Amino acid sequence: MTVSRALEARDALEPDLDAQRDGEADAVRATHRYQVLFHNAAFGVIVSNEAGRILQVNGRMCEMLGHTQDELIALPLKDVIHPDDVTASARVRAGLISGPQTWTQFEKRYLRKDGSVVTVMATVSRVDDLDGGGPVMMGIMEDVTAQRAAEQALRDLNRTLERRVADRTAALARANKEMEAFSYAVSHDLRAPLRAIHGFSLALLNEHEAQLDAEGRHWLTRIQANTLRMSDLVDALLSLSRLTGGDLISVPLDLADLARSVVEDVRQAHPDSVATISVLDRLPAVGDPRLLRIVLVNLIDNAVKFCLTEEHPRIVIGGSAAAESVHLSVEDNGAGFDMAYAEKLFAPFQRLHENTQFPGVGVGLATVFRIVAHHGGRVWAEGSPDRGATFHIELPASRQEPVL
Amino acid sequence: MSADDVTILLVEDNPDDEELCVRALRRSQIKNEIVVAHDGVEAVEYLLDQNAGERAHLVLLDLKLPRLDGLQVLERLRADPRTHTTPVVVLTTSDEQRDLIESYNLGANSYIRKPVDFTQFSDAIRAIGVYWLSLNRQPPGSLGAVASPGRNVINTG
Hints:
The complex is a heterodimer. By secondary structure, chain A is α+β, with helices and mostly antiparallel strands. Helix content of chain A is about 50%, strand content about 20%. Chain A folds into three domains: about 40-145, PAS domain (Beta-Lactamase); about 150-225; about 250-395, Heat Shock Protein 90, CATH 3.30.565.10. Chain A has helices at about 5-15, 25-40, 60-65, 70-75, 75-80, 85-100, 145-190, 190-205, 215-240, 255-270, 290-305, 365-375, and strands at about 45-50, 55, 105-110, 115-125, 135-145, 250-255, 275-280, 285, 315-320, 325-330, 380-385, 390-395. In chain A, helix 7 runs antiparallel to helix 9, helix 10 (about 255-270) packs across helix 11 and helix 11 (about 290-305) packs antiparallel against helix 12 (about 365-375). The interface of A and B includes residues 184, 191 and 198 of A.
């Protein structure tokens, strides 16, 4: 029941005393009205004197502190205020008593009877000359415990989150540093023995040729070729590991333009290719031009390479741009592959063809996969043996945070 | 001072690389004296030694070395007036960007990545010899100087 309804109800119960009602009755009625309002207020109200004695508390205040009215009136104010806030609270009261300010607002904590803490927003005013005595303090208290707890929880959560982000960032930085150290070690320590094997086997071949028969020379040649191949593998592994080490640049670009420029380079690298290569007119996308160029070089170079043995090699670079993503495909009619091995295609050092037939190290598509994944996109391939292959990449249409 | 008077200081800790490098130098008909330092401290001590310091030098410097590494060696050489202009060719396995940049920042004259292929390695050594022992001119007074293009010590044939 609301306060006004309660009053109406009381009014309705009271008989109309007409003109006989005297001033005293009016006063009683006003006092009663005031008391009903005071006790039913939705805010806690606490009245105390200059000495810090509680004179009056309302129902809400009792509820907030878990005490009865009688208990509270018997207690000194400082016994219900949180020990850490007693001094500040006394200072505020002293300030109000000495004036000139007559009211103020501040946050303070009370102790409930059960020992728990209630945080309130206190609006305290000085009331002079009440009952002819000294000034009294009237505090109107809004319980903000739940609000403050929620705020604190949010702050804690933010702090936890920040700490977690910092931890992850540090872990990532550490992993990157370790990776860097690893690459450095690989670059130095794996190449040096290879250089020795190559150098000394060549010395054997050059300076002791007379003591070697044809088979001996052949084996030495094989050692040499494998050393160089191993060296290529080490280099490829290194460049793959370094590929996405830097920051991803994200700029608008035309994949079709990029493809045309790559086609020219690839043609120069394969002067013996007679492939017809068509490139779509325009394909706007967003990404890192240097890295996407590497993607196109790998895809187009592969297409040309795997078409070399075809009589009428044909490569079609197509695609489409939609609101969410940009799709590019490189289709050839070359050697193709068995779909059963499709998932092996993008793993490093996986090769589906004999090295002698289609030479390569086996990191090209792994490189493509890595760069496209770094852009937040995806790659896939379709093909069948001797009937060509189509490689697809799909990039998000707009700027994305790099995917680590 | 002629090119023949230039001592080549090879700073190399790996005995295989040392042997290959000396072999490549000799195969390129480079007959200069070759001194080998096996770590950075040896290299600095040798070059900043009174007597060695009076000779002209070409330093072939590996980067990954025990005790003082190649970059630290380079830093010490550049800080000393006696070796301030001594030609230093970094000859390393590393192709790390930061090594390349740091070497030049510290005053390397050249940076060569040692190829695994010994034929290419020999070619690189021959080119280094032709350039630094024959073509290049150093400022006068520099202890690393080749005062004039020397006698033809390089048989490029």
